[in-house]
Every structure is written in structure tokens, then in C-alpha cells.
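Feature request, filed as a ticket because there's no other form

It would be nice if the structure record came with a short human-readable summary line next to the C-alpha cells. Right now we just get the raw output. Example of a typical job, pasted below so the devs can see what we mean:
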Amino acid sequence: MREQTDVLVLGGAGVDTIVHVPELPLPFADSYMIRPGIETRAGQSGDFVALGLDALGLRTHHLDMIGADHEGDLVRTLHRERGIPLTEAPLASGTKRAVNLVGPDGRRLSLYDATRTHESDRFEESTVRELATGTRHAHVVITQPCAFTLPVLREAGATISTDLHNWDGADAYHETFALQSDLVFLSTTALTDPERTMRDIADRGRARIVVATAGADGSYLLYDDELTHTPAVTPPAPVVDSNGAGDAFASGFLLGLLNGEHPRRCALYGSVAGAYACTVPSTRTDAIGLEELLARAAAVEKGHAADGTLPAGDTA
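Raw output as currently delivered:
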């Protein structure tokens, strides 16, 4: 019998090539000298969620399609070194990859290689069903072919979350995930009216909880028909890269949810985890641990420091 999993993460395994640029948007020029250099490492949305959940002590399993290539080896090595079980299906077109342009302020622009996935890609239904049967919750990344797993996950009895990232509120591909998930994360970046979009997701879909992250402006939680705001937590160190902050937020939120916390406290956990992620250089994949997250969240709740900084003498 397979050991029970707290969270099954589906999709989002891949490799990023990190390019530090002097500013974003990048002015046209014939060439640039790049420092501290260009580096390729494993770690895309699904990888970051799995890493974040594992660092917080949740039993995590990752499922995705991966190629028989160098990029795939990087993904396999990352999971092996972190001790995160990885079930892979073959991806003939090659492992997902992207180039991230990272500015001095930590903002980034991601360029995804669209040739690495195809509409005909599929997981074996039996594999999805077997993994879903032994999990408490499934977090579904919006990469192909994860949309096709949603009915199977539902039949297996798993609760489902997804992250729509910078959805505009209209694109039909994202809408499939939005309306079939119990918990929906999304960014306010491309939304003209975030509250309207959040309520539309809740009204037309299965979501009991909708969370819209807004970067330095914090996040918005729609739960039990009430919209509340959670202020951003000041990062514990200088911001160097915003990549992965949303994935860290989701990991922190899910920790609280699976531990029976109220969604507002879950949002606080997400804010603390997301703030920490912004301090991690783009070439690394570190995630906040459980003890530090709880200590920083407690500091905010107790009013010791509105920015989540630990009081003098306290340690994480």
C-alpha cells in the first residue's frame, strides 16, 4: 500500500535559465555584459510548490511529464536531493524550460518555450487515480495536460487547489482550472476589477476560497462571501527575486488549510512564506521552514512587529 500523501502536486516541473539584466524593461542594444552571470537550474511553479510544502513538513508527491534530456536530469536531481517523490511520464518534446530576465529590484520577465508541450500530451489515468486515492489534497498547476486530471482527482475524493497566476479573467484555458477547483489562487496583475473576478469564480465554480495576491499590496481573501485584505509582510532580508513568491504563498496557505486553520490565518502564513521567497536568489531554490514560518506569523499576530521581524532575543 502506498504511503498517504498530504499534497499531490501535478505539473509545473521544469528548468529556468536565469539572466540578470540591468533594468526591466530591457532597452534595445546589440549586446549586454551580464553579471553575476547566466545560470540554469531546475525549478518552475510545480517544483517550487512541492519544495515549499516539503520544507513545511507536509508529505508531498510530484507528478509531471518530463523529457529524457539534460533539463529532465536537473529536475530529477532536484527532487532526489530534496527527498521529494517524483512520478514522471515521458515527454517526447523535452522538459519544460524558460528564460527568466531578473532586474536589480527582483522583478522578472519569464519567456516560456511553447514547443515543449502539445495538446495531445496526457497522463495515464490509472497513474493519476492511484496517486490521488492516497492523497489529502491535490495542487494542480496550469501546465498541459493537467486540466484533464481534474475530473479524476474529483472522483478520487481529493480537494483541489490551483494557481491561475496572471489570468485576465477571460481566457478559457485558465477558466477550466478556475471553475473546477475548491481553492483558487491568482494574481491581480492582469485584472481590472479583482473583486469581481474573484466573486465570479466563486459564483460559477466550486471554489469555497479565492485568494488574489497583489505583491507589495498584500493579498485579498474571498471566503464565506466576505472579502478581506491581508497586508504584505516585510521580507526578512533585501528583495533579490520575486520568482517563486506566489508558489511559496500557496505552500504556506495550504499548510494552514490542511492543519485546520481559518483561511485568514492561512493567508498570513502565505504572506510570510512569499516574503521569504523574495529574499532567495534566483539561482537557488530555498524555502522557509515550519519553525521560522510559525515564529514570524506569531510575531505579526502578537503585534511584536507589523513587518514580521522577530523581536530581539527571539529566534526562528
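Something like this underneath would help us a lot:
The chain has nine helices and 13 strands.
The first strand starts at residue 5 and ends at 10.
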